[in-house]
Amino acid sequence: MNCLGYDDKKDFINMDLYTNSDTVIVLDFETTGLSPDCGDRAIEIGAVKIVNGVLVERFQKLMNPHRRIDSFIEQYTGITNKMLSKSAPCEEVMHEFSEFIDGYNLVAHNASFDSRFLDAELSRIKRNQFGPFACSMLVSRRIYPDAPNHKLGTLVEYKSLPNDGTFHRALADAEMTAYLWLEIIEDIKEEYPFEGISFDVMKKLSRTAKNDTSNFLHRMSGC
Question: Which of 105, 61, 157 is nearest to 115 (CA)?
Fold first, then answer.
């Protein structure tokens, strides 16, 4: 785990922060396939902790699912069977990760995918998912309707967001999603008179009809 010196003891933090959309954990899984219901497992977790709009801590671990991954996944992610054979078991990593995310709202790009794997891996260690999820992909479809598409890589280029050219590795994708999430928040605040945007508003925005986005944000901002 890569830390940036942030003190994560919530006793010293105003708990009101945890209702704000700019205090979240953004996460990404790399997996053996598309569905835990079909027996697929997580092989890497990457996450970024954001507090008050600042990236303060990172978490990244490979995890050994005790099964071989196929050549397509190796080529797609750059994660090899040899790398996984030397990694901690999924259960050990997920115990550590569950402590990292405890008490935070969660964000992912295509959150339905990542939330399913998070649920599945936590259930194996008899833990429940902690915070609610918001989906940066669904929100981006409403805020950036003119983007060529709403894949993460496309949006990173569309908004000229920081990146090192690495894709399909968990921490790199989580970091890019974090920058995208914060960019979305700032773009909303530039157009609508929010002092702060709650996480609940962002979740509701992701489910708002696209042609009602402006009306919804006007109502939520009180103008």
Answer: 105
- Residue 156: per-residue pLDDT: 96
Note whether residue 210 is domain-resident: yes
Tell me which residue of 178, 138, 180, 142 sits closest to 158, measured CA to CA: 180
Q: Which pTM does this prediction carry?
A: 0.90
The reply to whether 57 falls in a domain is yes
User: 95, 109, 168, 218: which is the annotated catalytic residue?
Assistant: 168
The three-state secondary structure class of 163 is coil
- The total number of structural domains in the chain stands at 1
Based on the residue annotation, tell me whether 168 is a catalytic residue of this protein.
yes
Ordered DSSP codes for 41-105 = -EEEEEEEEEETTEEEEEEEEE-B-SSPPPHHHHHHH---HHHHHTSPBHHHHHHHHHHHHTT--
